[in-house]
Structure to design on (311 residues):
């Protein structure tokens, strides 16, 4: 046995003792000239069943197949080393996440072969997916009012910016309702903060029922202050939502023995509609509607004040 044969045997032993699965594809024939025996331990397919590139393609998740094959072929033709992640089908019908690390072998400027390693990255993918879920939860929490479960001020600011831009582009009306629970400080002082928190949750849940369309948006923006954003809603539509809010809260019959206007919990509302002129800002509109809310309070509370700022 020559030294070259001995070296080849050593390299083969080393390759086949690793968890990474070595392989080689002849570019011209698109066939496997070699694949490590570890493949059977990972996917269950026998080593000699990997004959052509089609065996690799057919043992790939259908959702991954088109993109991965197109990417690998284009990169290989260009002579560019690359990596690809995909789900590989096991002999039992399950899927394992694989990362293929590919090196393109060229001779005289032409692609001769592809050599590489397959790595089992299933555990890494599980960790990544878990982190993505955690990140999504954190994002949801950061935009959610912790007490009531509806959107918070931060989310409202984000949605307002988006809908204001839409209104400016389309010229369609945008309506806003800002509402306050009447004499909520007195409610908290006399019934206690635990009861006050229960009240806020009940009010948030009740107000959420006033939504008419998917883009109608409600948030809690302060202690006892809530806000409705109504895209593509004219003044009459906003009036209906406001009256529905008042009606739904009255229907709850929440006792408030320390209110100066009613024995039951009540709301004051400012309701405004605009067309989002290009020279105007969203915050100017919010301030206009906020003034309507304070007008409702000055005029006796348990009521709504309306204004159409268009034209």
């Amino acid at each position: 046995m020559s030294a070259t044969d001995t070296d080849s045997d050593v390299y083969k032993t080393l390759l086949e003792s690793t968890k990474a699965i070595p392989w080689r594809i002849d570019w011209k024939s698109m066939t496997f000239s070699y694949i490590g025996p570890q493949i059977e331990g990972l996917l269950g397919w026998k080593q000699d069943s990997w004959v052509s590139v089609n065996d690799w393609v057919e043992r790939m998740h259908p959702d991954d197949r088109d993109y991965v094959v197109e990417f690998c072929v284009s990169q290989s033709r260009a002579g560019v080393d690359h990596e690809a992640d995909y789900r590989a089908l096991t002999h039992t019908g399950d899927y394992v996440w694989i990362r293929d690390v590919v090196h393109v072998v060229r001779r005289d400027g032409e692609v001769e072969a592809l050599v590489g390693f397959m790595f089992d990255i299933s555990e890494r993918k599980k960790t990544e997916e878990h982190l993505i879920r955690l990140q999504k939860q954190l994002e949801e929490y950061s935009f959610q009012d912790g007490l009531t479960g509806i959107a918070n001020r931060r989310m409202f600011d984000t949605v307002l910016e988006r809908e204001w831009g839409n209104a400016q582009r389309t010229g369609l009306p945008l309506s806003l309702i800002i509402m306050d629970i009447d004499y909520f400080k007195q409610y908290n002082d006399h019934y206690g903060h635990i009861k006050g928190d229960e009240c806020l949750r009940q009010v948030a849940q009740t107000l959420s029922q006033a939504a008419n369309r998917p883009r109608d948006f409600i948030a809690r923006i302060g202690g006892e202050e809530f806000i409705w954003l109504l895209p593509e809603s004219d003044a009459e539509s906003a009036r209906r939502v406001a009256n529905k809010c008042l009606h739904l809260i009255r229907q709850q019959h929440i006792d408030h023995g320390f209110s100066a206007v009613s024995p039951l919990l009540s709301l004051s509302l400012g309701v405004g509609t605009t067309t989002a002129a290009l020279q105007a800002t969203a915050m100017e509109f919010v301030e206009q509607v906020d003034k309507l809310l304070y007008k409702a309070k000055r005029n006796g509370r348990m009521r709504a004040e309306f204004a159409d700022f268009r034209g």
